[in-house]
Write a sequence for this structure.
């Protein structure tokens, strides 16, 4: 069996929305080309809050990225074996990731390493109480809503304050309003206060996710969890993220002692840092 060894032991990890692609958008060709070139020197990985199918769509099925940590690291797929050897026979997965829909010998396999299930977590009933607080908040907002506000993923609850069916114009409408009226911060405060009253505040992460939403998950489901699969395998690990403030889902990973963190405010910031690596 032919294998492909990567002699370089440095790893670059990236958040997706706001870091290497605009929120909810497909990666720009020049960004993809830069990452492809970097993959000849570094091993690349994704640590995103979205689902695998969404991230593969945004990045246009990038076979030059070897680690895919999705849903804040609660779901992990990789093209690499434990010794950083490429796995032959890559396959594409359908939307529910339950079966392979196509493969050839010349391709590589995207291997599922683990999937966690928040429904089985002891905090699940308490998080449901917080979700009801979100719905109560949304029922009283003074802006126009769309639909599909709550997304229960494998490892996190994601709340979109405009709705996940919003089009680009509606998303921009909300983002502009939020910049003026701080709806996300107001809901964060409500959820954190409720979590304090329930006695679970120290056990949960309640943080900004993307440009229009909030993520809720047990603290052990934070993005830092990806390091359990990575530490000790690389001489350096870099992480790029735009939600680097304390209430953002990149904060803990970007500030972790063994990580070289890069705080960015847009895709262009990421590009400038990468050009100078």
């Amino acid at each position: 069996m032919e294998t492909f060894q990567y002699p370089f032991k440095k790893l670059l990890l990236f958040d997706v929305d706001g870091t290497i692609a605009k929120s909810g958008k497909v990666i720009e060709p020049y960004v993809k080309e830069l990452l492809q070139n970097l993959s000849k020197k570094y091993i690349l990985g994704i640590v995103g809050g979205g689902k695998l199918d969404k991230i593969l769509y945004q990045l246009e099925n990038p076979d030059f990225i070897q680690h895919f940590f999705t849903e804040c690291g609660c779901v992990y797929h990789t093209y690499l074996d434990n010794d950083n050897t490429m796995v032959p026979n890559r396959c594409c997965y359908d939307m529910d990731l339950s079966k392979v829909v196509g493969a050839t010998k010349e391709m590589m396999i995207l291997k599922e390493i683990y999937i966690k299930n928040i429904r089985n977590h002891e905090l699940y009933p308490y998080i449901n109480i917080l979700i009801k607080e979100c719905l109560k908040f949304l029922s009283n907002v003074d802006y126009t809503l769309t639909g599909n506000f709550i997304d229960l993923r494998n490892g996190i609850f994601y709340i979109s304050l405009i709705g996940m069916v919003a089009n680009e114009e509606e998303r921009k409408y909300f983002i502009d309003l939020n910049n003026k009226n701080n709806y996300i911060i107001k809901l964060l405060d409500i959820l954190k206060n409720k979590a304090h009253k329930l006695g679970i505040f120290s056990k949960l992460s309640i943080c900004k996710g993307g440009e229009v939403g909030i993520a809720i998950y047990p603290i052990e489901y934070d993005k830092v969890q990806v390091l359990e699969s990575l530490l000790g395998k690389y001489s350096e690990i870099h992480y790029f993220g735009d939600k680097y403030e304390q209430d953002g889902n990149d904060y803990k990973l970007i500030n972790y002692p063994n990580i070289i963190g890069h705080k960015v405010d847009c895709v262009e910031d990421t590009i400038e840092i990468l050009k100078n690596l």
Q: What stands out?
A: The chain has two domains: 10-116+223-275, 118-221.
